[in-house]
Design brief:
The protein is an alpha+beta fold. The protein contains 4 helices and 6 strands.
């Protein structure tokens, strides 16, 4: 029997790490000013933390394959100026600069979000989803608010 390689050991360790632990680690590396907060309910865990000029939310409904990881960050509140122009801008940004995330509208605000089921979700994917949403939101919120926000 051959000894396991370092990569095999790392992969095994990462597979045994819960998504909760990975999320906590990623948030602790990204948060500013110890801003992270977490709550737990029947619907799962919800975290909120500050990254640059945005607040980022992470929800994990559980650890089974059917559960869902959702990451979102509000970037602009309605009402807005030139709603048609905003819609076009968001669609163009969705095509060119959002990676695995996307812009959407929920609860009268524009958000950057990413969502996927927990099935076969690796720690790297958890980290990337949170990091991409935080980075894309922080990169675009000020410009969107300046161009389309109501004064």
């Amino acid at each position: 029997m051959e000894p396991e390689s370092n990569q095999d050991l790392l992969d095994t360790e990462m597979e045994q790490t819960s998504h909760l632990d990975v999320i906590e680690t990623v948030i602790s590396s990204l948060q500013e000013d110890q801003s992270a907060m977490v709550s737990q309910s029947e619907d799962g865990h919800l975290w909120k933390f500050k990254y640059g000029s945005v607040e980022v939310f992470v929800r994990l409904t559980g650890e089974t394959d059917e559960d869902v990881l959702t990451v979102w960050a509000p970037v602009l509140k309605f009402p807005v100026q030139n709603e048609a122009g905003l819609t076009r801008k968001l669609l163009e940004l969705n095509w060119s600069s959002t990676f695995e995330s996307h812009f959407g509208i929920v609860d009268d605000q524009v958000v950057v979000s990413a969502q996927r089921t927990v099935a076969e979700l690796s720690p790297g994917e958890v980290s990337r989803n949170i990091t991409v949403v935080a980075t894309v939101a922080d990169s675009h919120d000020d410009a969107l608010q300046a161009e389309f926000g109501v004064a």
